[in-house]
Design brief:
Length: about 280
Amino acid sequence: MINQGQQLLAAFSDSAKLDCKILLAFVLNKETSYLLTWPEKKLTEQEYQAFITLFERRLQGEPIAYITQEREFWSLPFYVSPATLIPRPDTELLVEHILARHLASDLSCLDLGTGTGAIALSLASEQKQWQVHGIDFSEAAISLAKKNAQRLQLPQVELYQSDWFSNVAANKKFNIIVSNPPYIDEADQHLIEGDVRFEPLSALVAQDNGFADIKRIAKDAQVYLTNNGALYFEHGFEQAAGVRDILKQLGYQSIETFKDYGGNDRVTCCIYLQLK
Protein backbone atom coordinates (compact mmCIF):
# COMPACT_ATOMS: atom_id res chain seq x y z
CA MET A 1 0.00 0.00 0.00
CA ILE A 2 2.78 2.42 0.91
CA ASN A 3 4.68 1.69 -2.31
CA GLN A 4 1.58 2.19 -4.45
CA GLY A 5 0.72 5.41 -2.68
CA GLN A 6 4.28 6.66 -3.02
CA GLN A 7 4.15 6.24 -6.79
CA LEU A 8 0.90 8.22 -7.04
CA LEU A 9 2.13 11.05 -4.82
CA ALA A 10 5.64 11.26 -6.27
CA ALA A 11 4.53 13.69 -9.00
CA PHE A 12 4.05 16.58 -6.57
CA SER A 13 5.40 15.52 -3.18
CA ASP A 14 9.11 15.18 -2.45
CA SER A 15 8.23 13.16 0.65
CA ALA A 16 5.71 10.79 -0.92
CA LYS A 17 6.73 7.67 1.00
CA LEU A 18 6.79 9.51 4.32
CA ASP A 19 3.38 11.04 3.54
CA CYS A 20 1.91 7.56 3.11
CA LYS A 21 3.51 6.30 6.32
CA ILE A 22 2.18 9.25 8.31
CA LEU A 23 -1.35 8.81 6.95
CA LEU A 24 -1.33 5.06 7.58
CA ALA A 25 0.01 5.50 11.12
CA PHE A 26 -2.60 8.19 11.73
CA VAL A 27 -5.40 5.81 10.68
CA LEU A 28 -4.00 3.12 12.97
CA ASN A 29 -3.45 5.64 15.80
CA LYS A 30 0.16 4.49 16.05
CA GLU A 31 3.64 5.97 15.67
CA THR A 32 5.24 5.50 12.21
CA SER A 33 7.78 3.15 13.84
CA TYR A 34 4.89 0.71 14.34
CA LEU A 35 4.78 0.15 10.58
CA LEU A 36 8.34 -1.21 10.66
CA THR A 37 7.68 -3.35 13.72
CA TRP A 38 4.53 -4.93 12.29
CA PRO A 39 4.95 -4.90 8.48
CA GLU A 40 2.57 -7.86 8.04
CA LYS A 41 -0.31 -5.99 9.72
CA LYS A 42 -3.51 -6.25 7.66
CA LEU A 43 -5.97 -3.37 7.67
CA THR A 44 -9.61 -3.87 8.46
CA GLU A 45 -12.04 -2.68 5.80
CA GLN A 46 -12.83 0.37 7.95
CA GLU A 47 -9.13 1.24 8.33
CA TYR A 48 -8.56 0.77 4.61
CA GLN A 49 -11.44 3.09 3.67
CA ALA A 50 -10.25 5.68 6.18
CA PHE A 51 -6.77 5.58 4.65
CA ILE A 52 -8.14 5.94 1.12
CA THR A 53 -10.22 8.97 2.17
CA LEU A 54 -7.18 10.69 3.67
CA PHE A 55 -4.94 9.65 0.79
CA GLU A 56 -7.32 11.20 -1.75
CA ARG A 57 -7.18 14.48 0.16
CA ARG A 58 -3.38 14.35 -0.06
CA LEU A 59 -3.64 13.60 -3.78
CA GLN A 60 -5.53 16.89 -4.14
CA GLY A 61 -2.51 18.61 -2.60
CA GLU A 62 -3.87 19.19 0.90
CA PRO A 63 -0.96 19.42 3.37
CA ILE A 64 -0.34 16.42 5.59
CA ALA A 65 -0.45 18.69 8.67
CA TYR A 66 -4.00 19.81 7.89
CA ILE A 67 -5.12 16.23 7.27
CA THR A 68 -3.69 14.92 10.55
CA GLN A 69 -4.29 18.26 12.33
CA GLU A 70 -0.83 18.11 13.87
CA ARG A 71 2.76 19.20 13.20
CA GLU A 72 5.90 18.90 15.31
CA PHE A 73 7.84 22.08 16.06
CA TRP A 74 10.80 22.40 18.44
CA SER A 75 10.25 18.69 19.21
CA LEU A 76 6.80 19.58 20.58
CA PRO A 77 3.44 18.43 19.16
CA PHE A 78 1.22 21.26 17.94
CA TYR A 79 -2.36 21.14 16.78
CA VAL A 80 -2.80 22.90 13.45
CA SER A 81 -5.77 23.97 11.39
CA PRO A 82 -6.46 25.85 8.14
CA ALA A 83 -6.89 28.98 10.31
CA THR A 84 -3.12 29.13 10.81
CA LEU A 85 0.13 28.69 8.94
CA ILE A 86 1.77 25.30 9.30
CA PRO A 87 4.86 25.67 11.54
CA ARG A 88 8.03 25.17 9.52
CA PRO A 89 11.51 24.02 10.58
CA ASP A 90 13.14 27.28 9.43
CA THR A 91 11.08 29.21 11.98
CA GLU A 92 12.90 27.28 14.71
CA LEU A 93 15.80 29.64 13.90
CA LEU A 94 13.92 32.38 15.72
CA VAL A 95 13.62 30.22 18.81
CA GLU A 96 17.26 29.13 18.61
CA HIS A 97 18.69 32.62 18.35
CA ILE A 98 16.44 34.11 21.02
CA LEU A 99 17.33 31.40 23.53
CA ALA A 100 21.04 31.67 22.71
CA ARG A 101 21.15 35.46 23.08
CA HIS A 102 18.83 35.95 26.07
CA LEU A 103 19.86 33.90 29.09
CA ALA A 104 18.21 35.82 31.92
CA SER A 105 15.27 34.12 33.62
CA ASP A 106 13.15 37.22 34.23
CA LEU A 107 12.53 38.46 30.68
CA SER A 108 9.31 39.41 28.91
CA CYS A 109 8.62 38.40 25.31
CA LEU A 110 5.88 39.25 22.81
CA ASP A 111 5.18 37.01 19.79
CA LEU A 112 3.30 38.96 17.11
CA GLY A 113 1.13 36.85 14.79
CA THR A 114 1.49 33.77 16.98
CA GLY A 115 -0.72 31.46 14.86
CA THR A 116 -0.50 28.00 16.45
CA GLY A 117 1.55 29.53 19.25
CA ALA A 118 4.64 27.69 18.01
CA ILE A 119 7.21 30.41 18.75
CA ALA A 120 5.69 31.68 22.01
CA LEU A 121 5.08 28.22 23.46
CA SER A 122 8.46 26.85 22.38
CA LEU A 123 10.20 29.74 24.13
CA ALA A 124 8.04 29.27 27.21
CA SER A 125 8.82 25.55 27.28
CA GLU A 126 12.52 26.38 27.58
CA GLN A 127 12.23 29.45 29.81
CA LYS A 128 9.29 28.82 32.12
CA GLN A 129 9.98 31.97 34.18
CA TRP A 130 9.68 34.30 31.20
CA GLN A 131 6.55 36.40 30.80
CA VAL A 132 5.46 35.38 27.31
CA HIS A 133 2.59 36.93 25.35
CA GLY A 134 1.31 35.66 22.00
CA ILE A 135 -1.14 37.68 19.92
CA ASP A 136 -2.89 37.19 16.60
CA PHE A 137 -5.49 39.05 14.56
CA SER A 138 -7.43 35.79 14.09
CA GLU A 139 -9.70 34.64 16.91
CA ALA A 140 -9.55 31.13 15.45
CA ALA A 141 -5.76 31.18 15.67
CA ILE A 142 -5.85 32.34 19.28
CA SER A 143 -8.31 29.59 20.14
CA LEU A 144 -5.95 27.03 18.60
CA ALA A 145 -2.90 28.52 20.36
CA LYS A 146 -4.72 28.27 23.69
CA LYS A 147 -5.50 24.63 22.95
CA ASN A 148 -1.79 24.04 22.30
CA ALA A 149 -0.84 25.85 25.52
CA GLN A 150 -3.15 23.53 27.45
CA ARG A 151 -1.76 20.48 25.66
CA LEU A 152 1.83 21.50 26.42
CA GLN A 153 0.96 22.47 30.00
CA LEU A 154 2.10 26.06 29.58
CA PRO A 155 -0.78 28.01 31.14
CA GLN A 156 1.49 30.93 32.04
CA VAL A 157 1.61 32.11 28.40
CA GLU A 158 -0.87 34.92 27.76
CA LEU A 159 -2.62 34.51 24.42
CA TYR A 160 -5.10 37.06 23.12
CA GLN A 161 -6.52 38.65 19.98
CA SER A 162 -4.88 41.84 18.74
CA ASP A 163 -4.32 43.57 15.40
CA TRP A 164 -0.57 43.82 15.96
CA PHE A 165 -0.23 46.13 18.98
CA SER A 166 -3.83 47.36 19.08
CA ASN A 167 -4.81 45.35 22.19
CA VAL A 168 -1.43 45.38 23.91
CA ALA A 169 -1.50 47.57 27.03
CA ALA A 170 0.08 50.92 26.23
CA ASN A 171 2.30 50.79 29.31
CA LYS A 172 3.53 47.25 28.63
CA LYS A 173 7.25 46.81 27.90
CA PHE A 174 9.01 43.76 26.47
CA ASN A 175 12.65 42.72 26.43
CA ILE A 176 12.01 40.73 23.27
CA ILE A 177 9.54 41.18 20.42
CA VAL A 178 9.48 38.48 17.76
CA SER A 179 7.39 38.07 14.64
CA ASN A 180 6.98 35.81 11.64
CA PRO A 181 4.62 38.24 9.87
CA PRO A 182 3.03 38.11 6.42
CA TYR A 183 5.87 38.93 4.02
CA ILE A 184 4.94 37.48 0.62
CA ASP A 185 4.15 39.90 -2.20
CA GLU A 186 0.58 39.71 -3.51
CA ALA A 187 1.81 38.82 -7.02
CA ASP A 188 4.21 36.08 -5.93
CA GLN A 189 3.68 32.94 -8.03
CA HIS A 190 4.53 30.69 -5.07
CA LEU A 191 1.09 31.48 -3.66
CA ILE A 192 -0.46 29.05 -6.14
CA GLU A 193 2.03 26.25 -5.47
CA GLY A 194 2.34 23.48 -2.88
CA ASP A 195 1.05 23.70 0.68
CA VAL A 196 0.77 27.49 0.52
CA ARG A 197 -2.38 27.16 -1.61
CA PHE A 198 -4.24 25.85 1.45
CA GLU A 199 -2.90 28.30 4.04
CA PRO A 200 -4.67 31.54 5.03
CA LEU A 201 -3.65 34.41 2.73
CA SER A 202 -3.98 36.89 5.59
CA ALA A 203 -1.04 35.18 7.29
CA LEU A 204 1.05 35.10 4.12
CA VAL A 205 0.54 38.22 2.04
CA ALA A 206 1.56 41.81 2.73
CA GLN A 207 1.34 44.92 0.60
CA ASP A 208 4.32 47.09 -0.38
CA ASN A 209 6.16 44.15 -1.99
CA GLY A 210 5.70 42.16 1.20
CA PHE A 211 7.18 44.80 3.53
CA ALA A 212 4.04 46.57 4.81
CA ASP A 213 3.61 44.61 8.06
CA ILE A 214 7.34 44.52 8.76
CA LYS A 215 7.47 48.33 8.49
CA ARG A 216 4.46 48.76 10.75
CA ILE A 217 5.76 46.37 13.40
CA ALA A 218 9.28 47.82 13.36
CA LYS A 219 7.93 51.35 13.88
CA ASP A 220 5.34 50.54 16.56
CA ALA A 221 7.63 48.13 18.43
CA GLN A 222 9.72 51.06 19.64
CA VAL A 223 6.87 52.04 21.97
CA TYR A 224 6.81 48.58 23.56
CA LEU A 225 10.49 47.59 23.69
CA THR A 226 12.56 48.15 26.81
CA ASN A 227 15.79 50.06 26.43
CA ASN A 228 18.25 47.59 24.88
CA GLY A 229 15.29 45.41 23.90
CA ALA A 230 15.59 43.08 20.90
CA LEU A 231 13.38 42.80 17.82
CA TYR A 232 13.40 39.66 15.65
CA PHE A 233 11.81 39.07 12.22
CA GLU A 234 11.47 36.05 10.01
CA HIS A 235 11.29 37.20 6.37
CA GLY A 236 11.63 36.08 2.77
CA PHE A 237 15.08 34.99 1.60
CA GLU A 238 15.34 37.97 -0.78
CA GLN A 239 14.14 40.54 1.76
CA ALA A 240 17.09 40.69 4.17
CA ALA A 241 18.63 43.87 2.73
CA GLY A 242 15.22 45.56 2.66
CA VAL A 243 14.49 44.61 6.27
CA ARG A 244 17.89 45.87 7.40
CA ASP A 245 17.27 49.18 5.62
CA ILE A 246 13.89 49.58 7.36
CA LEU A 247 15.47 48.93 10.76
CA LYS A 248 18.41 51.24 10.07
CA GLN A 249 16.13 54.10 9.03
CA LEU A 250 14.23 53.71 12.30
CA GLY A 251 17.42 53.98 14.31
CA TYR A 252 17.80 50.37 15.45
CA GLN A 253 21.30 49.19 16.34
CA SER A 254 23.31 45.94 16.04
CA ILE A 255 21.32 44.80 13.00
CA GLU A 256 22.16 41.23 11.96
CA THR A 257 20.77 38.66 9.52
CA PHE A 258 21.01 34.90 9.99
CA LYS A 259 20.71 32.17 7.38
CA ASP A 260 18.29 29.24 7.53
CA TYR A 261 19.22 25.57 7.21
CA GLY A 262 19.23 25.92 3.43
CA GLY A 263 21.74 28.75 3.50
CA ASN A 264 19.17 31.48 2.75
CA ASP A 265 18.83 34.76 4.64
CA ARG A 266 15.83 34.16 6.91
CA VAL A 267 16.00 35.97 10.28
CA THR A 268 17.01 39.55 11.01
CA CYS A 269 17.35 40.97 14.50
CA CYS A 270 18.29 44.31 16.03
CA ILE A 271 18.50 46.24 19.30
CA TYR A 272 16.45 49.27 20.34
CA LEU A 273 18.37 51.92 22.24
CA GLN A 274 16.30 54.80 23.59
CA LEU A 275 17.66 58.29 22.92
CA LYS A 276 18.75 60.12 26.04
